[in-house]
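Suppose a colleague, Dr. K., hands you the sequence of a protein chain of 82 amino acids and asks what its three-dimensional shape might be. Before reaching for any lab equipment, you can write down a predicted structure in token form. Begin with the sequence itself:
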Amino acid sequence: MKGLGKRGHIADGLLLFPDNKEIAIEVELTLKSKQRLLEIFRNYMTCFQIKEIWYYCSPNITDRLSKLAEKMPYFKFHHLEG
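The predicted structure, expressed as tokens, is then:
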């Protein structure tokens, strides 16, 4: 799969549409450190073939991630219902 960044980050999933639009899927069950999340976000910002990044996580994690990415409209956050 496509690794992002120097050490690489592999998305949990990748949607590929007929028009070649790519959307990365991330499932965040536990919160990573702020530095690691920002590193992943920066890696996605340099990966121009991926047009959106959809994060699925619990509400408390969604709130924290959306604040980190508030100026990055191509990051979309969705609540996982448990």
